[in-house]
Amino acid sequence: MALGAAEETIRRIEAVWRIESTKLIAGLLRLTRDVGQAEELAQEALVAGLERWPEAGVPDNPGAWLMTTAKNRALDDLRRRKLLRGKHQELGRELDAEQEAASGELEARLERELDDDVGDDLLRLIFTACHPVLAREARVALTLRLLGGLTTVEIARAFLAPEPTIAQRIVRAKKTLAEAKLPFEVPRGAERAARLASVLEVIYLIFNEGYAATAGDDWMRPELCEDALRLGRVLAGLVPDEPEVHGLVSLMEIQASRAGARRGPTGEPILLLEQDRSRWDQLLIRRGLAALERAEALGGARGPYALQAALAACHARARTAADTDWARIAGLYGALGEVAPSPIVELNRAIALAMLFGPEAGLKLVDALKDDPALASYHLLPSVRGDFLTKLGRFEEARAELERAAALTQNARERALLLARAAACGEAAGSSRA
Amino acid sequence: MRVMMMVKANPKSEAGVLPTEQQLAAMGKYNDELQKAGVLLDLSGLRPSSAGVRVKFQGGKRTVVDGPFAEGKELIAGYWVIQVKSKEEAIEWAKRIPAESNEIGEVELRPFYELEDFAPGSAIDAAKELGKKLPANSAPKR
């Protein structure tokens, strides 16, 4: 029984950590101006809780307890450093902080600051974790760790990477941030747009890694999708006037609504038009459509995320695959190609046009993209060609394309699906010859 | 996981007494917290059972019974739907409900069935078909 109770407390502490860690680190970052130190203080407070709570019980307001504990440790640190340094004096805010500390003013100021609305702290933390001085994968790891409340082990598992690799990545990222001596301000003006784009990119990378795992045996890792959605929703609450944030949230909500329909019983992928739409999550669709409306109401209809959300919404609104408004989809891909030109967008536009005008037309459009170097190792190009060729009854060519696509994809599930289709083409070719 | 937190009715909610400004403010603050944490999916308040009806099924017959209904403590007055990592996280959020100021006596937490909990029917069929029939359409994954 006692063991059960202790376990229960630990699970409870994990839950508290998940809810409070981000706010805690964000609040402490304002004080320490160092991500690593802020996280350490938060962790130390958690350890203190872990030692104390199984015996004494979890306090009524565990978040406040953790914050007070971390804050006290931060103050102790400051005082200790002051003692160590003796009469040596340093200029700058640290000195001010020490003088304040001596007079008890710091405590009062911290109290005020940490009780403030945490919105700006959180935003500062998000912008810091997604700072462009960091490599993309470092941003992703740091964001999951500091804002998603994930442990290094969880992040490693999610990205199929060895734990030491992720741990290293996080340590190095924190060091880079410390060395860059960032002002830790929430960016304004022109810089804000660029920095926000980096934040949105990180969140969508996390979502996509969960939604269409680029490598490994699983077709999806839904936990990562949920983490990304949560981050997106948090961000939408922090910067409600940014249309692209709502665009991204809409895109993720609508894509996530299909999670239950895009895997078969043994985990194999089921493509959009084959999915059982009764399994789409209507609550998420409703939320996604509402977020899209908000993005459009804020004048953001032509933002890249809003356009992708509008595309996803076209499918969400169609009751059956046959009801899909392919003309609108082709038009939206056209608009997306203008604001964010990419051969992949062109490829998708070709698919939409093929749905409108037939596989012959689709094939012509796709063939125009065939030599684009950006698509050279992109499995969807031969996969789409293979599909058009199949529909045109050119099974031999189709099989070759599908096999090429299978060789290019990194995802085991997707490869199996493509090979099955290639084999079916092979059979069809055989029987049409016979 | 998705969890529904159901607020049980009390005599006031059953009498259709609307929350005071103060109660609304406390609840609004809590809802805001859920929203800002990115866990809130849906929420609603329900009219008292006097506005409700029950449709009973017995022996092939359908009988409509008008409210109000007597089992006050078991009636639902409102709900939240939250997305959390664990049951413990849901409990943490539930403990923070401003129960005293809003005269809430009990909240019931019920995890949703997720699609994974069911053996897919038509999805199984679709998958079986995949191997047999000619290649499916390769529309974009989204």
Shape assignment of chain A:
elongated
Give the tally of β-strands of chain B.
Answer: 6
Radius of gyration of chain A: 26 Å
Q: Order of strands across the widest beta sheet of chain B?
A: 2-5-1-6
- Based on secondary structure, the structural category of chain A is mainly alpha
Q: What is the subunit arrangement here?
A: heterodimer
User: Percent helix among the residues of chain A?
Assistant: over 70%
SSE layout:
The complex is a heterodimer of chains A (434) and B (142).
Chain A: H1 2-32, H2 35-56, H3 62-85, H4 93-103, H5 105-115, H6 119-129, H7 136-146, H8 152-158, H9 163-179, H10 189-211, H11 222-238, H12 243-256, H13 282-297, H14 304-317, H15 326-339, H16 343-357, H17 359-369, H18 380-391, H19 395-408, H20 412-433
Helix pairs in contact in A: 1-2, 1-3, 1-6, 2-3, 3-4, 7-9, 7-10, 8-9, 10-11, 10-12, 11-12, 12-13, 12-14, 13-14, 14-15, 15-16, 16-17, 17-18, 18-19, 19-20
Chain B: E1 2-8, H1 11-14, H2 21-36, E2 40-45, E3 53-58, E4 61-66, E5 76-83, H3 87-95, E6 107-111, H4 122-132
Folded structure, characterized:
- The complex is a heterodimer of chains A (434) and B (142).
- Chain A has 20 helices and no strands.
- By secondary structure, chain A is mostly helical.
- In chain A, helix 2 crosses helix 3, helix 10 packs antiparallel against helix 11 and helix 18 packs antiparallel against helix 19 (395-408).
- The longest helix of chain A has 31 residues, at 2-32.
- The termini of chain A are far apart.
- The longest helix of chain B has 16 residues, at 21-36.
- With 142 residues, chain B is an alpha+beta fold.
- Chain B is built from 4 helices and 6 strands, in the order E-H-H-E-E-E-E-H-E-H.
- The interface between A and B is large, with 61 and 40 residues.
